[in-house]
Specification:
Elements (H helix, E strand, L loop, with lengths): L4 E4 L7 E4 L6 H45 L3 H12 L1
Amino acid sequence: MRPGEGVVIYGHLRPARIQVRPHFTPSEQRWRQRLDRQAAQQQARQARKATRAHERATRRAARQAERIRRHLPGWARARGEAGRDR
């Protein structure tokens, strides 16, 4: 038998294997809950940060493409816009 496992013997019934859960004091429970909450908050923060970074990169690429398009001669601009319609 491994740690955390046990056997219950009750009367004439067959022995039953059980998994034993650890017992935590209230202060330990609060500590564990706080760790879980902090981990969830950290994951949410990282997701928000990744989303913002992606949005910034998209806006930056659009601005850069617009700047390049603005500095092209007229014939090249028309050619580029015709390519966008396809």
